[in-house]
Amino acid sequence: KKIAVLISGNGSNLQAIIDDQAKTSDLYVIALVISNRPDAYGLERAKKAGIATLCIDHTDYASREEFDTQMQLQLDQAKIDLVVLAGFMRILTQGFTQHFLGKMLNIHPSLLPKYTGLHTHKRALEAGDTEHGLSIHFVTPELDGGPVILQAKVAIENDETEQSLQQKVHQQEHIAYPLVVRWFCEERIQLIDNRVVYFGQQL
Ligand code: GRF
């Protein structure tokens, strides 16, 4: 399968997928990395791995529709089977999410449905939660609201800081995201009637 990874920043999840791809090389190829920000460090990671990159700077577009249309054009041209959002910080239009329905994943740093949106680590700490984590879900028009495929939990300790919590969650993200990408490419998961259907054994 041909996958594309969409980023806005550091791209540590992209790196985890690049490393996984190197290990499981015949299962999928990372055909394209798109960033909406020219300064995203993830673009360097992709280039170093010899992956085609594209910067589609959202500030060059008058509307979300025009920006999304340009991304869709590029993804369709590259014949992408799976779009992987990895720290991609733009809200996507209904049209774009519909076009890639069942073919687009996102990773969110909270145990959804808790804490959609931003500053999830801070919010979990402030709420006095004892556990936190990440969710990987199919993308639907509802922001951070698509059906969850996999979650991983981390404990919140007494002396936890926002930074230490973020680090713990990141560590788990780097294990979980490549795993779910593999499941998709092996056709073990599918979005059917707004639900995740699992085929075969997962772990
Ligand atoms: C991750 O925490 C992810 O859950 C969120 O954005 C962050 C991206 O980090 N959506 P990176 O760019 O992959 O390092």
UniProtKB/TrEMBL annotation:
Could you tell me which residue ranges the Formyl transferase N-terminal domain spans? 1-181
Q: In which pathway does it act?
A: Purine metabolism; IMP biosynthesis via de novo pathway; N(2)-formyl-N(1)-(5-phospho-D-ribosyl)glycinamide from N(1)-(5-phospho-D-ribosyl)glycinamide (10-formyl THF route): step 1/1
The EC number(s) given in the record are 2.1.2.2
CDD domains from the UniProt entry: FMT_core_GART
Give site residues, Raises pKa of active site His. Answer: D144
Q: What catalytic activity is recorded?
A: N(1)-(5-phospho-beta-D-ribosyl)glycinamide + (6R)-10-formyltetrahydrofolate = N(2)-formyl-N(1)-(5-phospho-beta-D-ribosyl)glycinamide + (6S)-5,6,7,8-tetrahydrofolate + H(+)
User: In the record, what terms sit under GO molecular function?
Assistant: phosphoribosylglycinamide formyltransferase activity
Keywords in UniProt for this one? Answer: Purine biosynthesis, Transferase
Where does this protein hold (6R)-10-formyltetrahydrofolate? R64, M89, R90, I91, L92, N106
In this protein, the active site sits at: H108 (proton donor)
Entry's InterPro entries? Formyl_transf_N, Formyl_transf_N_sf, GART
Residues that, per the record, bind N(1)-(5-phospho-beta-D-ribosyl)glycinamide:
G11, S12, N13
Keyword set includes Transferase: yes
Q: Which family does it belong to?
A: Belongs to the GART family.
Function statement = Catalyzes the transfer of a formyl group from 10-formyltetrahydrofolate to 5-phospho-ribosyl-glycinamide (GAR), producing 5-phospho-ribosyl-N-formylglycinamide (FGAR) and tetrahydrofolate.
- This chain's protein is named Phosphoribosylglycinamide formyltransferase
Task: Give the species.
Answer: Thiomicrorhabdus marina
The organism that produces this protein has a lineage beginning with:
Bacteria, Pseudomonadati, Pseudomonadota, Gammaproteobacteria, Thiotrichales
